[in-house]
Amino acid sequence: MLLAKDLSFRYPRQDWILQNFNMEIAPGEVVGLLGPSGFGKTTLSKLLAGYLSPTAGDVRVNHAPLPRSGYCPVQLIFQNPELAVNPRWRIQQILAEKQMPEPSLLEALGIHSGWLNRYPHELSGGELQRVAVARVLNPATSYLIADEMTAMLDANTQALIWHRVLDYALVQNLGLLVISHEAALIQRLCNRVIDLVQVRASERWKGA
Amino acid sequence: MAAPVLSRRKSIRFNRRQITLGSMALCLVFLLLIGLSSWLIGEAGLDPVLTQRNQPPNWAHPFGTDWLGRDMLTRSLHGMSLSLRIGLLAASFSAIIGTGLGLISGTLGGKVDAVITWIIDVFFSLPHLVLLIMIAFAVGGGTKGVVIAVALTHWTSLARVIRAETLQVNSSNYVQLSHRLGRSPVWIARHHMLPHVVPQLLVGLVLLFPHAILHEAALSFIGIGLSPHTPAIGIILAESMRNLSTGYWWVGVLPGLLLLLAVKAFDILGENLRMLIDPKTSQE
Amino acid sequence: MLSVENLSITFSMYDRGLAQKQLTVITDLALDVQAGEVMAIVGASGSGKSLLAHAILGILPDNAKVSGSIWFKGDLLTPQRSSQLRGKAIALIPQSIGYLDPLMQVGRQVQRTAQLSGLSASDAKAAVNRTFDRYGLAAAVQRLYPFQLSGGMARRVLVATAVVAQAELVIADEPTPGLHPDVVAETLSHLSQLASEGKGVILITHDIEAALQIADRVAVFYAGTTVEITPASDFYSGKIRHPYTQALWRALPQNDFIAVAGSQPSPDALPNGCLFSERCAGVTAECRSERPAFRQVRGAPVRCIHAAR
Ligand SMILES: Nc1ncnc2c1ncn2[C@@H]1O[C@H](COP(=O)(O)OP(=O)(O)OP(=O)(O)O)[C@@H](O)[C@H]1O
Ligand code: SF4
Ligand SMILES: [Mg+2]
Fold first, then answer.
1. Is residue B31 part of a domain?
2. Within 13 Å of residue A126, how many CA atoms lie on the same side as its CB?
3. What is the pLDDT of residue C155?
4. What was the pLDDT predicted at C8?
5. Residues with Cβ within 5 Å of ion ligand 3?
6. Which residue, by CA, sits nearest to atom 4 of ligand 1?
7. Which CATH number covers residue B96?
């Protein structure tokens, strides 16, 4: 179970971005997160994956806090793959940073062996995103946060990758949080949807 | 019979990387030759031969001789060789200071960063040459003075570059991700940081070199560098000033040209190295 | 206004050591844009959309070799000419604020663009004020640095940068990925407004739905080739011709969300015949023998020998 309990976050001396947010994702569950820009979706995903520490509240995986070091069972896929890879590494090295993915996974994601020897700037944005996805699909990952993961991909590749990731999630019992502006995509993928606008409205209502 | 030769010429076309590597090798060989020349040609030419004073360039003395009959080629090469060694020493010290402070500043951040940045700014705002002269003078001139002065005045720009690079890499998504993938800070420093910093360091070092040499020459020229008896390039140039009006042009022009060539060789070396190391330009 | 014919782009790369190999990533790309028109480009990721934009702007890396021709307003667009026109007659609306100088206030940057396009400092200042005003950016925004902009503001600043230079051809490369529908709609309306002022607009996007809202025609790219150039309305009326275009349409989450398996062929192992033949359901032996040329089907060009069926 991935659990966010009374999660609050703000940068020093600034307004709250997130306040008393509660959420849980069970293994194998696919949850969608909807919300306009500026509603803290990216902040939330960084908190869940341990890139940021909450100002208050906490994130728990199977009743334990996120590990400070070692492999984090919650992995985040960034919207912008160009920034998520070391520009001086070759694709081969990038893929293998945790462990080299199975050839069948590379095949399924449409990653050509010809790319392995190239540098990131020699791939297109969509090609690079597939590399970024392959990098974290391994048994040590129990939850995957996909922040606008396929916004840079064509419709066919988007559908293809999501089908692969859903298949993978089913087999490995992976929990998924899908963040997207595309309501149609969320509807397709998710068992359950969290709408941040509603969450915030109900908080106001409770507060009043 | 000329035609086949011509067409053969045409068919040999070098690609960009071959040209780059070729010119780098050429520069390197040239610099190495100069560096080793003082051993190779010995000291014979340094002694005055009073029967051969003020000879213009000829086969026996390609750079001519000076007013004491010393062979100018031998003197120039000895001078350049000394300059290169001093330059290497000074540039290395400078690069060590720059890299060290840059890395510390970029990694630790906070107050340490503020202090180091402040020091860099202070050094930057002081007039370069004045500082150089003051330091060289303060530590008593000579080889030691030159090395210390050049080392202490040239680390700032490299420190800045390395600090910026360190900051940028440290705050990048891929380094944060690497932590989340379970990589240790040491591993990250080795695999993510090093590939960014080492090229900067190498290029910085090579580009520092010509500065070091020129400043060594400048210090010797105004008389607080090396002792006037050593055949340093700065001293040769200072002496030649007196000869400019007498028409003995070779005494100054040819050693000056050699200095220029050596400096240019370093520049080419540095620029090409930069191109080769950066994946964005290395495919050209 | 702009016409691209038989464009191909080849990269020379170092294989191992000093040996160079050639990699042709774009073959036979075609496109034309009229003044006052929005031409959308959709297609597989890695099909050469961005490279086309870079070729028009003359900003390909030095190891790229271009053949074929690009015509702009009747004259051949040579690399020299495109570097002269870049930022003036031809402007790019880049994908991210990463293209802005992070250390310079955005007002100053836009003003610099205006001055580079030939306006005097005072005229440029006036143009910047006008443009910021037009896109609902308060005067105070001019003094902000790029990182201080919200996503929506950043988009408007990027549009302003292209507009202030009075460009005649505006190329927007993925201007809306991952943006809130409101911001998407706003950015799109800016683009269609530019077209109605008589400018040519190229909109490169993965968001077919968004593209269809404003595009007059849509060019579909696959594996470095234009497979179809269709009126936008044909998507909704089910008249799109090429199997790949149909696959894209079907794969949308709001349609069937069914993907064609496999992946785009890699540039160093292209099939001899139709580039889509490895994944096409309607493939026949004929498809495999020769690359289909453009032919007119229902009034628009398509590269498929069976498209009429
Ligand atoms: N510098 C380069 N060297 C070698 N190959 C390159 C280079 N830049 C791009 N490519 C290749 O050219 C092809 C087209 O790339 P391009 O960036 O135009 O794709 P795109 O259609 O914009 O894709 P996306 O929708 O994913 O952004 C890709 O296969 C890519 O790998
Ligand atoms: S030419 Fe043949 S293989 Fe190619 S798209 Fe048409 S039907 Fe499919
Ligand atoms: Mg692109």
1. yes
2. 29
3. 80
4. 92
5. A 125; C 50
6. A122
7. 1.10.3720.10
Q: Closest partner residue to B173 among A50, A84, A97, by Cβ?
A: A84
Mean pLDDT of chain B, nearest integer: 81
Question: How many domains does the structure of chain A reveal?
Answer: 1
Set of chain C residues whose Cβ sits within 8 Å of the Cβ of B168: none
Residues 6+ apart with CB under 8 A from C18: B15, B17, B18, B21
- Looking at residue A52, which CATH number applies to its domain? 3.40.50.300
Identify the residue whose C-alpha is closest to ligand 1 atom 28.
Answer: C46
For C176-203, write each residue's pLDDT tens digit. Answer: 776 778 778 888 998 999 999 999 999 9
- pLDDT at residue B125 greater than cutoff 50: yes
Alpha helices in B109-141 (DSSP H): 110-125, 128-138
Verify whether the Cβ–Cβ distance A187 to C259 is below 8 Å. Answer: no
Which ligand sits closest to the CA of C46? 1
Mutation choice for ligand 2 from C225, C227, C264, C277, CB with most ligand atoms inside 8 A: C277
pLDDT at residue B11 greater than cutoff 50? no
The verdict on ipTM greater than 0.95 is: no
| pTM for the whole structure | 0.78
- In a domain? residue B283: no
CA C248, CA A110: separation in Å to the nearest integer?
Answer: 16
Please give the residue range of the domain that contains residue B72.
2-42+65-277
Q: Count CB-CB contacts under 10 A for residue A11.
A: 11
What is the model's pLDDT at position C228?
A: 95
Output C63 or C32, whichever has higher pLDDT.
Answer: C32
Q: Which residues form the domain of A50?
A: 2-206
**Residues C112-122 as b or e (16 or more Cβ within 10 Å = b):** bbbbebebeee
User: Based on the structure, what is the number of domains in chain B?
Assistant: 1
Residue holding tokens 């051993």?
B39
Which residues from B are below 8 Å from A87, CB to CB?
279-280
In a domain, B256, yes or no: yes
